[in-house]
Amino acid sequence: MTSATGRTAAALQFALAAENAAIYGYGVAGAQLGAAGRGLALRDWTQHEVARDQLEAMLTSLGVKPVAAQPAYQLPFPVHGSQAAISLVGDLENRVAAAYLGIVALDDPRLRAWGATQARACALRATTWLGRTAAFPGLSPGPGTAAATSPSASP
Amino acid sequence: MRADLRRRSVLAAAAVTVPLVAAGCKGVGGLGTLPKAGPDVAVLRGAIGTEQALIDRYRSAMAGSPGLAGTLGPLLAQHREHLARLTSMLIEPPGRSPTPRAVSSSPGTAGTGSAPAATLAVLEAAETAAARSLTARLALAPPALAQLLASIAASEASHALLLRTHRAPG
């Protein structure tokens, strides 16, 4: 494997691991949401599954075994109630966006464009859930800047 | 022409010294002209122009529709963050004037007297166009700049979504 292929595989694996964690997290969040929220969570969960399948296919075509999903994931905070569930999916979307920005850093222009499309999809889902936008989805805020227009709800 | 000179000015000092040495050395034809700025500098300056044009649009929209300040203010603040972070990546020699403002081609700029819904629609279209323009520059950017452009484009796509939500609540 060339070093470029190795970098590509590592970025794809990182995104796959983030997608697997998000799929788990959406399941946890969905259980805390009402009917309308569960419907939206199901739609987004499905989108993450589609992306996961794409990443697995891309890795397989590189001759790399895709990382397996873990049976459970450590959540960033306890999730009890719908507000915490919404905060969780907002947090997960930002983490997945960060992983896709790793693909944007690769040299292949098609992978860059695909990574950017996926990061955009994460930002759109996060805005739908949170009702606000972030200045830099998937990136740590710049020096002296805030990440979002308002602080996220605490669980 | 002036734009070309300014673009050259953003080159690192080490690169600028090359043609001065080469000027007295007629045999080296390839070094006889000033080096062109790298594509990443052009990408960065293009992105800065895009953000400045968006900031102008928001300021004009807020002046024309003060009732929208609560909706537009946070989005304008994020565009200022975009501009600051992009500008911080541009290396300019001291004493240079700031980046020239991009002339904002503004068909249907939301100005004084526009209905709020029309103002929101114009801004939504501008956000979508800006996101597309940043994404189109990805291939020419070095990795760290490509990541920043993709993140800003994602932010602007979500601005467009939020503006659409405010335009047609429910």
Largest interface: A-B, 34 and 30 residues
CATH architecture level-2 label of chain A: Up-down Bundle
How many domain modules of chain B?
2
The level-1 CATH class of chain A? Mainly Alpha
Poorly predicted tracts of residues of chain A: 144-155
CATH topology of chain A: Ferritin
How do the strands and helices of this protein lay out in sequence?
The complex is a heterodimer of chains A (155) and B (170).
Chain A: H1 3-30, H2 35-61, H3 82-104, H4 109-130
Helix pairs in contact in A: 1-2, 1-3, 3-4
Chain B: H1 2-9, H2 13-22, H3 39-64, H4 69-88, H5 116-136, H6 143-167
Helix pairs in contact in B: 3-4, 3-5, 4-6, 5-6
Protein described:
The complex is a heterodimer of chains A (155) and B (170). With 155 residues, chain A is an all-alpha fold. Chain A has one domain: Ferritin. Chain A has helices at 3-30, 35-61, 82-104, 109-130. With 170 residues, chain B is mainly α. Chain B has two domains: 1-37, no CATH class; 38-99 and 111-167, Ferritin, core subunit, four-helix bundle (Ferritin, Up-down Bundle), CATH 1.20.1260. Helix content of chain B is 65%, strand content 0%. Chain B contains six helices and no strands. Chain B has helices at 2-9, 13-22, 39-64, 69-88, 116-136, 143-167. Chain B is elongated. The relative contact order of chain B is 0.14.
